[in-house]
Amino acid sequence: MSASAATVLSASTDLRFRYAVHLGDTSLILAQRLGEWVGHAPALEEDLALANIALDLLGQARYLLSYAGEIEGKGRTEDDLAFLRDPSDFTNLALVEQPNVDFGHTIVRQFLIDAWQLELFECLQGSSEPRFAELAAKALKETRYHYRFSSGWMVRLGDGTEESHKRVQEGLDSLWKFTSEFFAPGAVDEEAAAAGLGPDPASLRAAWAANVEQVLTEATLKKPADVSYRWFGKRNQHSEHLSHLLAEMQFMQRTYPGVQW
Amino acid sequence: MSASAATVLSASTDLRFRYAVHLGDTSLILAQRLGEWVGHAPALEEDLALANIALDLLGQARYLLSYAGEIEGKGRTEDDLAFLRDPSDFTNLALVEQPNVDFGHTIVRQFLIDAWQLELFECLQGSSEPRFAELAAKALKETRYHYRFSSGWMVRLGDGTEESHKRVQEGLDSLWKFTSEFFAPGAVDEEAAAAGLGPDPASLRAAWAANVEQVLTEATLKKPADVSYRWFGKRNQHSEHLSHLLAEMQFMQRTYPGVQW
Amino acid sequence: VTLEQRFQSKVDDDERIEPKDWMPDAYRQTLIRQISQHAHSEIVGMLPEGNWITRAPSLRRKAVLIAKVQDEGGHGMYLYSAAETLGISRDELLEQLLAGTAKYSSIFNYPTPTWADVGAIGWLVDGAAIMNQIPICRCSYGPYARAMVRICKEESFHQRQGFEIMMTLARGTPEQHRMAQDALNRWWWPSIMMFGPNDATSKHTAQSMRWKIKRFSNDELRQKFIDITVPQAEFLGLKVPDPDLRWDEATQHYIHGPIDWKEFEEVLKGNGPCNRERLETRRRAHDDGRWVREAALAHAEKQRARETQAA
Amino acid sequence: VTLEQRFQSKVDDDERIEPKDWMPDAYRQTLIRQISQHAHSEIVGMLPEGNWITRAPSLRRKAVLIAKVQDEGGHGMYLYSAAETLGISRDELLEQLLAGTAKYSSIFNYPTPTWADVGAIGWLVDGAAIMNQIPICRCSYGPYARAMVRICKEESFHQRQGFEIMMTLARGTPEQHRMAQDALNRWWWPSIMMFGPNDATSKHTAQSMRWKIKRFSNDELRQKFIDITVPQAEFLGLKVPDPDLRWDEATQHYIHGPIDWKEFEEVLKGNGPCNRERLETRRRAHDDGRWVREAALAHAEKQRARETQAA
Predict the structure, then answer these.
(1) Does residue D1 carry a pLDDT above 90?
(2) Residue A260 maps to a domain
(3) Residues β-bridged to residue D141
(4) For residue A152, what is the nearest residue in chain C, using CA coordinates?
(5) Is residue B2 part of a domain?
(6) A87 touching chain D per CB within 8 A
(7) Is B252 within 8 Å of D296 when comparing Cβ atoms?
(8) In a designed cystine with D46, which of B39, C83, D133, D221 is the match (CB 3.0 to 4.6 A)?
């Protein structure tokens, strides 16, 4: 984030809006997925922990989408942005919309994104936009806790039983391709970096990879080969899962438009 | 159906509307459930068969809901009735909204309802309302085919392997309680019977039970004990599954109201 | 004096019984039954409201709902811990729940077909629960009483949230008002029945009163709940679905119509609208989670072995 | 004359080769590969459109969509049967599909995020498929040619339905128009790539032409498709997402911009947006259905035993 004061000032309203929505969508959609677990987790402790992570992420999403609505200046609220946009308007990372499948897949998804958010929020604290910096400081503390939970389970499952190892390795193999999006150029986060709003996505890779590799080693898991996957949620390219998730999430607001709840 | 000409004439528009909606909802919701199977069945032949049954049921639903909208005279179409009513307005039998779970549950659900529709449509052919009689004649032929499929699978699964026997017995134990609704009084079908529109629900029980018992015997399955279950879809009392099913089914129409597709 | 007499006089003097104290076996068994039943209710009670987490109509409501359901899980944890002080493990208790031999509050066998049900549960079910639970904060058994203090605080918070949902709906659009009224229609009688059978037919009351596990009779608590709740319904502009309900000047109480105890018995026997679904859901979560719990154990075992080897 | 020469002269004379006829092994293998690939494409192709069955926006569209996906399953059946006449079983073919060793059309590795995708698949994907398949109705191998006649009839019906969905959207509300344009943007290039690599790099063409399994080159068919489809897009009021696209008076053809063959290769290699999901879905259906297939076999076995005993 080495943008000069001049570029900082030029970070347009539109860009700040889109960046806030991108980060907010990622937290929101992941919160929605984790919310599906509540009442159904493998044990009571995990149920509470997943609910907790969902709550933190939902808090981030509300902060970011409210801010986005505010700077957009068209009177859209956090709820308008969450419930009244079409799937193709969402710019969350595609990883977070992937289904829960089982606890193993859920933990892999969480671990990969936690490790990324650790780096993201660390850097975002230095954003030229105080609102992003403020969010990042709070979210970083939360993410450290999430990461402790998810990396702990990566190790327990990877280095647990034969079955748990197999399941979590499958989850890893299945979800790995979505991590290429974290660091890929050509989307709003790159623009945001150029304007000093946030970190250059590519710059997060080294620390993320080192972190992930260390945990995978401890978990006796095999790091999947990198593939050139290029369908990115942050470029509005989503899997089929997102529209199903949104159909459920948005149903009430779509059915009763303009109503207070 | 021994109503006199006088009662026949007095079968109010409102009653015909509600009866058509009740029967139409049952076919519609079951079609929706079967539609979930398409592309996911145990083998290609079953995939095609389930799609076929879904299509027949959907045809029945369209006929009945169109007719309901017509006699209601408020300009509501089959789509308005299918996509713009709330769960509590639906009067389908609760059995048909129960989730697919596995092929065994799906077959049990289908078999129980097929055996009921056989009797229903047989009698409904004599409805004082020609439109119901016409629907019944066509639907009866379809139902005979559905019943052949579902009863055939009941026997194959019940008298197949240990696992298939266990699964289908579980499905039967789980779904049996919903059959009490078929024959219970105090809902629109009883009113319809009094007005000569359709059969007395209780009158269908003996033939249904004989049929079911025979198939269960051949399938080496144990008939569950009757329980006094009294939450009935036809009295607008639904399980939690219906609102999820409708949220998915209705999403497009709810999101884009008043639009042609 | 016998142990039993000493025990009873402590109870009579409003002293707390603690885990290491001597206690009659029947007292212990009654407490295990009651606490575990309460714990199971919290766990099963996560499901009807949890059903709306993915569909909550605003982000704020979603957050509040997740937090509430999470609190219920937390209550389950405190209560299982309280039960464990009486010499039974959480695993044993869970097994009883999943085997269908332990009870939980019948109210959770009713479905939540609409969003208004989330409001109605908070307002009525949590309201009735508080009524039942506040006296237990002074229960003779220390760990149970202390758990209950914490739980009651959170419950009354939930109850207010539920009431607020109902108020928003009742004062909202006609559809919302209808949704709220429909939920009240469906939850009123089951809530009334949460206090258990009439005193005349309730079997545990007398002994539990003597032991100060229970401090008011079922009918007393039910009456208290109705007296508080009916004016709230009026305030909301909703109609309590009891045609016989009337205010009685003489007793200064509301008189309610006859309760359909047959429905109560049926739901208790397992024939409620969701009994089977609730247990199946819990069983599925338990079964699907087995490999995870096994992995955690296996990993802990490996860690221990490595540490031993290192030492 | 050798068997091979006699075979080739039959082909040259436009006589049909039938299952019991002698044929070169390479001809048989080429056909098995092509027919099974086609069959697999029908089966996997049920998934992207099937994704919208539960959410189709009207009952009529739902019925049409179910029927269409069902037709695709039916096409899969005919084609597996045609392949079976060449001495390979459906089970073997399915195994290859699930093992990931058999190919299917890459187009089905793209997702259907919106309803407009159902229209776009009918219009573009079925349109391209027909272009590929019509010549196969005159293929030298009888069972394949006959299956294709039946399939082509249904496909052109599907194509019209897809076009009609697109028309309704393109002429509908601004949101609907946007949905249609977005779908065209996403499906255009993958459809163009359905015809396979440029003739210069295509390896199977020459021999297949000689055997009359193939009658036009990839580029010929692609050109034909573009020439027909571009005016349709104009008629719909939609913009083809190719900035270089232009009508060439001299050749009386549309000239298209460069194709991103790197994307084609990536999707072929398994790195498309849904490759993994499609196979996992098929595998799950297969695995979840195992107990059912086993039960059917076991029951048939029991029946046979009973009949033998009775006889």
Answers:
(1) no
(2) no
(3) D17
(4) C296
(5) no
(6) yes
(7) no
(8) B39
Residue from the list B48, B167, B261 with its beta carbon closest to the beta carbon of D73: B48
Residue B258 has pLDDT above 60, yes or no: yes
Report the neighbours of D using a cutoff of 3 or more CB pairs below 8 angstroms.
A, B
Give pLDDT < 70 ranges for chain C.
204
Q: How far apart are CA C74 and CA C80, in angstroms?
A: 10
| Chain A residue whose CA is closest to D112 | A240
Residue B8: per-residue pLDDT = 44
**What is the C-alpha separation between B18 and B9, in angstroms, rounded?**
16
Structure-token match 């299918």, residue found: B82
Q: What is the total count of domains within chain A?
A: 1
H helical segments located in chain B: 5-10, 13-35, 44-72, 78-83, 94-97, 103-124, 130-158, 162-175, 180-183, 188-194, 205-218, 240-255
Q: In the predicted model, is pLDDT for residue D14 greater than 80?
A: yes
Put simply, the answer to whether B177 touches C276 (Cβ < 8 Å) is yes
In a domain, A35, yes or no: yes
pLDDT above 60: residue A25: yes
Alpha-carbon gap, residue B112 to A181, rounded angstroms = 49
Interface test with B, best of C271, C279, C283 (most B CBs within 10 A): C271
d(CA B115, CA B134): 20
Range of the domain at B33: 10-255
Q: Residue D209: pLDDT above 50? A: yes
Read off the tokens for A48: 């509470």
Distance from C-alpha of B175 to C-alpha of A27, rounded to nearest angstrom: 39
Instruction: State residue A178's pLDDT score.
Output: 97
Output the CA–CA distances (angstroms, integers) from residue C14 to A195, C11, D273, in the order listed: 69, 5, 68
Neighbours of chain A (3+ CB pairs under 8 A): B, C, D
Q: State pTM to two decimals.
A: 0.95
Position B71 scores a pLDDT of: 95
What is the residue whose two structure tokens read 């060793």? Answer: D101
Nearest C-alpha neighbor of C46 from the set C74, C64, C75, C69: C69
Closest CA to D235 of D187, D164, D158, D129: D164
Q: Is A258 exposed, middle or buried (0-12, 13-18, 19+ CB in 10 A)?
A: exposed
CATH number at residue B160: 1.20.1260.10
* Contact between chains at A238 and D271 (C-beta distance less than 8 A): no
**Given a cut of 50, is residue A159 above it in pLDDT?**
yes
Q: Beta strands of chain D (E only): which ranges?
A: 246-248, 253-255
Which chain A residue lies closest to B248 (C-alpha atoms)? A247
Provide φ and ψ at C108, rounded to 5°.
Answer: -80, 5
Mean pLDDT of chain A: 95
pLDDT of residue B11: 72
Confidence tier at B10 by pLDDT (50, 70, 90):
low
